[in-house]
């Protein structure tokens, strides 16, 4: 084509010298590049983005579309420029060498940027596939791919500028391994940690994470290459190094969320001096409670059958078996929790005594609510203990409470009177 064009100019009476041929070739290359740029960016890309925008798809927003197509168009322009230079410029010429180098650098750069845009699109699409987006730390993996791609393209571009083979630069990286490990320590550790977190199903986006060392207690919003972002319940944001989730311990509450039940584990302290046997009148009074009547009837038959064997020995209360107010309270609370609509019956449900302390005898409620929502959970828990505090006196028991200023003033007035 070049020879035909120059021969046509010669027939037209235009002498084409070496300098004139170079100027004409460069002018034709520049003109072609400008026309191609106008055609791609002012016509084709505008229409393509407009057509895709009318489809109203939600998986790829116009901003990412434009960025991806724009960079691919620039790659195509670089390829065309390289081809035009090889067609119009003489081989082994200095101008061809420089244009080829610039075109190749241009292609590598925008190929890398197009890869970045493609990874961003893939990351956005993964959000609409919850299982894939939750089980794989795609953001961290894609950031790792971007880092590796940037290093590889950077080495290729430097080798082009130096006129050396890329293998020459790669061979020199062996001596710089220690420096590279120091510079890229956090990204490398973060990438490995992200893969381990995903492979072992330790943490995914959306999990409730608690890590007291970093003051994190909330929902995981992002697992990146070097950091994990946690939106705390007080609306603050905590960032944790990704590798710290492997080297340190943390608590993942996702198992509780998936189980559908949240644990209540709280105690009330009973004044041990108020624990005693129930009298017959007190038993009759408590028997009026519907939840407690079956238990009292069963225990009366059991204790009566046992005590009949002792006959005269019952004159001493120690020899027989009797109902205690604390044991009856435990039986009532067990029946109350099993009848409560907000408590799971298919999970552990225990009302138990703990070891006595100077603050009294702890009576622990251990059960699971039927919801994991925080507000509902706190409401159920508060209702249960409100009821316990209100009915404790019906069992002739007292709660332990350290003396307050009011108690001291009441005692002092009693002493004065």
Describe the structure.
The chain is an alpha+beta fold and 417 residues long. Among the domains are: 2-128, no CATH class; 262-405, no CATH class. The chain contains 16 helices and eight strands. It has helices at residues 2-11, 18-54, 62-88, 94-126, 130-135, 138-162, 166-173, 177-183, 185-199, 244-247, 254-259, 280-286, 293-307, 325-339, 374-391, 405-416; strands at 208-211, 216-223, 227-232, 237-241, 251-252, 262-270, 350-353, 361-369. Strands 4-3-2-1-5 form a five-stranded antiparallel β-sheet. A hairpin with a 4-residue loop joins β1 (208-211) and β2 (216-223). The protein is rod-shaped and about 130 Å long. It starts with a helix and ends with a helix. The model has no long low-confidence stretch (mean pLDDT 80).
């Amino acid at each position: 084509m070049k020879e035909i064009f120059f021969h046509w100019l010669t027939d037209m009476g235009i002498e084409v010298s070496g300098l004139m041929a170079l100027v004409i070739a460069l002018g034709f290359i520049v003109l072609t590049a400008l026309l191609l740029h106008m055609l791609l960016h002012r016509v084709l890309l505008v229409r393509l983005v407009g057509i895709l925008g009318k489809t109203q798809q939600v998986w790829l927003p116009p901003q990412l579309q434009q960025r991806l197509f724009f960079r691919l168009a620039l790659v195509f322009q670089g390829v065309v420029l390289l081809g035009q230079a090889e067609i119009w410029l003489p081989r082994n010429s200095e101008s061809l060498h420089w244009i080829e180098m610039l075109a190749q650098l241009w292609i590598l750069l925008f190929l890398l940027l197009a890869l970045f845009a493609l990874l961003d699109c893939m990351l956005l699409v993964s959000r609409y596939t919850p299982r894939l987006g939750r089980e794989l730390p795609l953001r961290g993996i894609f950031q790792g791919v971007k880092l590796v791609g940037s290093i590889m393209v950077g080495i290729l571009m430097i080798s082009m500028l130096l006129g050396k083979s890329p293998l020459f630069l790669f061979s020199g990286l062996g001596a710089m391994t220690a420096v590279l490990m120091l510079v890229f320590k956090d990204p490398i550790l973060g990438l490995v940690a992200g893969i381990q977190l995903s492979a072992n199903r330790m943490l995914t986006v959306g999990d409730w994470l608690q890590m007291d060392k970093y003051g994190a207690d909330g929902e995981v919003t992002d697992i990146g290459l070097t950091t994990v972002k946690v939106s705390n319940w007080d609306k603050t944001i905590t960032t944790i190094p990704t590798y710290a989730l492997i080297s340190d311990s943390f608590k993942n509450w996702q198992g509780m969320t998936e189980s559908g039940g949240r644990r209540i584990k709280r105690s009330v302290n009973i004044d041990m001096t108020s624990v005693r046997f129930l009298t017959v009148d007190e038993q009759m009074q408590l028997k009026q409670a519907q939840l407690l009547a079956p238990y009292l009837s069963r225990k009366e038959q059991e204790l009566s059958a046992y005590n009949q064997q002792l006959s005269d020995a019952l004159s001493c209360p120690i020899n027989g078996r009797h109902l205690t107010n604390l044991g009856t309270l435990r039986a009532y609370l067990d029946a109350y929790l099993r009848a409560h609509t907000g408590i799971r019956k298919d999970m552990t449900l225990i009302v138990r005594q703990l070891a006595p302390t100077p603050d009294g005898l702890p009576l622990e409620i251990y059960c699971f609510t039927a919801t994991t929502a925080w507000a509902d959970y706190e409401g159920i828990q508060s209702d249960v203990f409100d009821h316990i505090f209100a009915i404790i006196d019906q069992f002739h028991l007292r709660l332990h409470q350290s003396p307050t200023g009011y108690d001291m003033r009441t005692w002092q007035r009693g002493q004065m009177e």
